[in-house]
Amino acid sequence: MDNFNLCITAVMQVFQISKPELLHGTQKKYPRKYAFGLLIYLAKEEFNYSLADVGRFLNKDRSNLSRVRNEIAGYLGGRDNKFDALIIGKYQQCRAAIHKLQQPTEITQ
Fold first, then answer.
1. Separation in Å, CA 14 to CA 10, 55, 96
2. What is the pLDDT of residues 8-41, one digit of tens each?
3. Can you tell me the distance from the alpha carbon of 23 to that of 8, in angstroms, rounded to the nearest whole number?
4. Taking a C-beta distance cutoff of 8 angstroms, is the pair 69, 40 a contact?
5. What span, in angstroms and rounded, lies between the C-alpha atoms of 107 and 109?
6. N or C: which end of the chain has fewer CB within 10 A?
């Protein structure tokens, strides 16, 4: 689940929230709700993790994760409003952060 940890780190950076808040928080509004949703969406769409695998890793029910992923997919579908544009922007920032984290670091002496 190394790639899943990349997703976690990227989402934490973009939304500026802590790992416990992201993974175990109970806030049901912005930013935690959408950060968690993007985490699930990225794991499924970018790295092809099954929702069952993610559920086992997070100790969360797969059906709930499916609902969360589908909700984010709706926002990313772009209903042409400002909030959807915000979520699309955060998604793009998360993807860019993942790609940056995947780049090998240069060692200087």
1. 6, 23, 10
2. 999 999 999 999 999 998 888 899 999 999 999 9
3. 9
4. yes
5. 7
6. C
